[in-house]
Amino acid sequence: MIKHKHIYTLPALLLMPFIGHAQVFGAVGQFFIDIQTLIDTILIPLVFAIALLAFIWGMYLYFIQGGGSDDSRQKGKQLALWAVIGFVLMVSIWGIVNAVALGLFGTTAPPQLPGTPTL
Predict the structure, then answer these.
(1) Which residues of 9-41 are buried (b: 16+ CB within 10 A; e: fewer)?
(2) What is the mean pLDDT of the chain?
(3) Count of domains in the chain?
(4) How many Å apart are CA 79 and CA 19, to the nearest integer?
(5) For residues 91 and 89, what is the distance between their CA atoms, to the nearest angstrom?
(6) Hey, how many other C-beta atoms are within 10 angstroms of the C-beta on 116?
(7) Of 12, 26, 57, 80, whose CB has the highest number of CB atoms within 10 Å?
(8) How far apart are CA 79 and CA 116, in angstroms?
(9) What pLDDT, on a 0 to 100 scale, did the predictor assign at position 107?
(10) Is residue 9 part of a domain?
(11) Is position 92 within any domain?
């Protein structure tokens, strides 16, 4: 019986400094906050910008460059269609994630659209 008591006491004593000084793990928490900030302020707006450029390029191929060529018009139409599908998927996933966050965390703040990339 006493033998088992020492098995639990030694790890508790060894972990006591970490329990008492919880700020030791603050750097890990800051790392995840930095990753979230990178995703929210740079990556998501960059993906939206790429989809917008793909849509504009598709419209350029369809209306301007493809005026006389059916092949170029078809390429432009396909590119614009896939860009619109990409927009719909990104916005719907964004809405689903916000709905899940609202359900789990109970925030009542309206969801914010991604802004422009900032450095």
Answers:
(1) eeeeeeeeeeeeeeeeeeeeeeeeeeeeeeeeb
(2) 76
(3) 1
(4) 56
(5) 6
(6) 10
(7) 80
(8) 23
(9) 63
(10) yes
(11) yes
Cα(119)–Cα(115) distance, rounded to whole angstroms? 12
Residue-level pLDDT at 81: 92
Q: How far apart are CA 67 and CA 77, in angstroms?
A: 12
Q: Say how far apart CA 26 and CA 36 lie, in whole Å.
A: 15
Range of the domain at 48: 2-105
Comparing CA positions, the residue from 68, 65, 96, 62 lying closest to residue 81 is: 62
53: phi then psi, degrees, rounded to nearest 5: -65, -40
Any residues with CB less than 8 A from the CB of 65 and at least 6 apart, and which? 72, 76
Per-residue pLDDT, 50: 92
CB atoms near residue 76 (< 10 Å): 21
Contacts of 76 (CB under 8 A, 6+ apart): 57, 58, 59, 60, 61, 62, 63, 65, 66
Q: Rounded to whole angstroms, how far apart are CA atoms 55 and 96?
A: 24
Residue 35 falls inside a structural domain? yes
Question: Is residue 111 included in any domain, yes or no?
Answer: no
| Run means of pLDDT, 10 residues per run, the chain, 119 residues | 62 62 58 78 88 91 82 89 92 84 67 60
